[in-house]
Amino acid sequence: MKRTLPHLAVLSRMLLVSISVAAQVAAGPVTFQLGPELQARYQSPSPGKGATNSTKKAVIGSSKTAIDTGNSKNSFWTEAVDLSGTGVVSNADMLWDGSSRILYAYSQMTLRCTHGKTIDGGILIAIYGKKNFLSKPPGSGWWMVDLQLGQCQAPLARLYGCKFGPDGQPYACGRAEIDPRINDLAIVEGTRF
Predict the structure, then answer these.
(1) Rounded CA separation 51/37 (Å)
(2) Is 101 left (phi over 0), alpha (psi -120 to 50) or beta?
(3) Into how many domains does the chain fold?
(4) What is the pLDDT of residues 8-39, one digit of tens each?
């Protein structure tokens, strides 16, 4: 029994360190929490009431925060949506990639830096649908922004983003890259802010 207590103490400390490291990994230069209304849209990825610009397109986004799905027959539309669940509505471009089964949303909006300041910039969000070609859990996904050196205290002018689970909670954040072969985001360097 006496030998068990020190082992339990060591295990407890390791668990606390693991939780602390996990909390630090899930922080990037921009704070963004995907809203539940947008996250649930993967279940019915079609234009909502009041949607405009309904057409077929292969590309969504702008500059470095753009994705080319390679399929010009994907459904594309613009609609007012609360991206972050805060009640602030933005005009967002939406694209449903029917072959990959991924819903994309792109908007120019005010973004909050982790350290409290705000910037205006574009954000691209991807939400995996049911039976998506990457076999990711439905409702999970990622978001990314393009930051210049010093914007939101970014150490490099690069893409930054987070991956989130089906519960909407981020689990990996940092400097990001897009794999153009599969249009998926990879966190290439974790950041702590």
Answers:
(1) 16
(2) left
(3) 1
(4) 444 344 433 333 334 444 578 999 999 998 99
